[in-house]
From TrEMBL, chain A:
Phylogenetic lineage: Eukaryota, Viridiplantae, Streptophyta, Embryophyta, Tracheophyta
Pfam families named among the record's database cross-references: RNase_PH, RNase_PH_C
Protein family membership: Belongs to the RNase PH family.
Ranges for region Disordered: 1-33
Stated name of the protein: Uncharacterized protein
Chief location of this protein within or outside the cell: cytoplasm
Keywords: Cytoplasm, Exosome, Nucleus, RNA-binding, rRNA processing
Molecular functions (GO terms): RNA binding
UniProtKB/TrEMBL annotation, chain B:
Name of the protein described by the UniProt record: Ribosomal RNA-processing protein 43
Domain of life assignment: Eukaryota
Residue runs in coiled coils: none
Gene, per the UniProt record: LOC100812139
Pfam families (UniProt xref): RNase_PH, RNase_PH_C
UniProt cross-references to Gene3D superfamilies, sorted A to Z: GHMP Kinase, N-terminal domain
Gene Ontology molecular function, alphabetical: mRNA 3'-UTR AU-rich region binding
GO BP terms, alphabetized: exonucleolytic trimming to generate mature 3'-end of 5.8S rRNA from tricistronic rRNA transcript (SSU-rRNA, 5.8S rRNA, LSU-rRNA); nuclear mRNA surveillance; nuclear polyadenylation-dependent rRNA catabolic process; rRNA catabolic process; TRAMP-dependent tRNA surveillance pathway; U1 snRNA 3'-end processing; U4 snRNA 3'-end processing; U5 snRNA 3'-end processing
Length: 254, 215
């Protein structure tokens, strides 16, 4: 018994025969399930003004991950809320029932709403809309891995489209760790088999990080390498996002 | 004995679609449109539900029809019905087999192994759709009929009529949920005439979309 002194606690060590290896996701020539190299991101597509009813909106497609975000406000805060000198940010992330291979599986990610809030809060100049609330609602249409980074990047674009004052656009990228390999922008298959993950949300122009999430076991050099990978990818992603905003402006002027 | 299963139809209005919809509480229109869709699809008899049967009395497909409104800008039912029909016309039922335990298994063409079981249905197949229903919502205001209203128009004027006709011109349903304006026979006939015109347009549009999707 564990309570008795002198007795050794029961331990379990898997014998070599029962220690099944995790099936390798990568084939011999080090290619990923979708044929990308380890440090290659999926192609990204962004478009603003997807929802007419919203103050601002954006649609994002990164590989097969599809996300749509609407921004409403600044509008009057709920009566129950206390007076605030600065504006409030309210975020909600939901999944369609058909977003995941198994129907309704997307509802597992309840924490995404608060993570989106934390990622965007540092980039928005909340002082510019006191006593009011900005609502950011995201809907994942198809989940194919790296959902949260896509949601965050898309939400930042929607906020810009809504004319909400921000310090900078927010770009987000994640990295998965497999033994000694780091793979950027993992797909669902890779996320399910990863040893650890690292997600960075940053403001590339200011070189500031608004959110850093690390799960699993990482060594210090690996974290540094992963962070550098993410920051480089964020800078490239921000360029695509900026060009999307410029396109939208030039289209409206025409 | 179970031969087939009626598909579950759900119309969702997530908070992204309108400033009125908030997370946590479903939109008022959502269950109404779901019920209306369910009634229209079942009463139009456009699908033979026996096609969803696999083994008589033992197994059948369950078809879930989830429709998401991304931007609520009026005539929600019309858009929902059109998207439902487009989805059903694109639906492919995968080929499956029954194993020794009487369980249904998917037959994959990729694996080179010789199939031990005889497939219940030999190949991927599509549902047979006949007499497809299409709808048009009109607003009645004084002596005017306003077809296909926007959300703003719907909020100002309270009386609307939804007419559902199938491709053969038969009336499937007529829906007038109250409102201060009385719908006279002539007004209803005018709405039906507008719908008949709309049915032709939508049917052509759907045919083009389907032919573009086929490889």
């Amino acid at each position: 018994m564990a309570g008795k002194g002198g007795s050794t606690p029961a331990t379990y060590s898997p014998s070599p025969t029962t220690d099944k290896k995790k099936p390798s996701l990568f084939n011999e020539d080090l290619a990923r399930p979708d044929g990308r190299s380890f440090h290659q991101c999926r192609p990204a597509f962004f478009r603003t003004g997807a929802v007419n009813a919203a103050s601002g909106s954006a649609y994002a497609e990164v590989g097969n991950t599809k996300v749509i975000v609407s921004v409403f406000g600044p509008r009057e805060s709920k009566k129950a809320m206390m007076y605030s000198d600065i504006g409030r940010l309210n975020c909600n992330v939901s999944f369609t029932t058909f977003a995941t291979p198994i129907r309704g599986q997307g509802s597992d990610h309840k924490e995404y709403s608060s993570m989106l809030h934390k990622a965007l809060e540092g980039a928005i100049i909340l002082e510019t809309f006191p006593k009011t609330t900005v609502d950011v609602f995201a809907l994942v249409l198809e989940s194919s891995g790296s959902d949260l980074p896509v949601v965050i990047s898309c939400a930042s674009l929607a906020l810009a489209d809504a004319g909400i004052m921000m310090y900078d656009l927010v770009a987000s990228v994640s990295v998965s760790c497999f033994n000694k390999n780091l793979v950027i922008d993992p797909v669902l298959e890779e996320e399910n088999g990863q040893d650890g993950s690292l997600m960075i949300t940053c403001m590339p122009s200011r070189y500031e990080i608004t959110q850093l999430t690390v799960t699993g076991e990482w060594s210090t050099p690996k974290i540094n390498e992963g962070m550098q990978l993410c920051l480089d990818a964020c800078a490239k992603l921000a360029k695509i996002m900026r060009s999307c905003l410029k396109e939208a402006v030039s289209d409206s002027q025409e | 004995m179970l031969i087939f299963v009626i598909s579950a139809i759900d119309f969702h209005m997530p908070p992204i679609c309108s400033p009125i919809v908030r997370p946590g509480r479903p939109a008022e229109a959502s269950p109404m449109v779901s019920k209306q869709l369910s009634n229209t699809i079942s009463s139009s008899r456009m699908t033979d539900l026996k096609e969803l049967s696999l083994v008589s009395g033992k197994a059948a497909w369950m078809a879930y029809l989830d429709i998401y409104c991304l931007d609520a800008d009026g005539a929600l039912f019309d858009a929902a019905l059109l998207s439902a029909i487009a989805a059903l016309s694109h639906l492919q039922i995968p080929s499956i087999a029954m194993n020794d335990d009487g369980k249904i298994v998917l037959v994959s063409d990729e694996d080179g192994q010789k199939r031990a079981q005889e497939p219940v249905n030999k190949e991927k197949r599509k549902l047979t759709l006949r007499s497809i229903p299409f709808s048009l919502t009109c607003i009645l205001h004084k002596n005017y009929i306003l077809a296909d209203p926007t959300a703003e128009e719907e909020s100002i004027m309270e009386t609307h009529v939804t007419v559902v006709l199938d491709t053969s011109g038969q009336l499937i349903s007529l829906y007038k949920p109250g409102g201060p304006v009385l719908a006279y026979t002539s007004a209803i006939q005018d709405c039906a005439a507008l719908t008949r015109q709309r049915v032709k347009e939508l049917n052509n549009f759907l045919d083009k979309a389907n032919s573009a999707m086929e490889v």
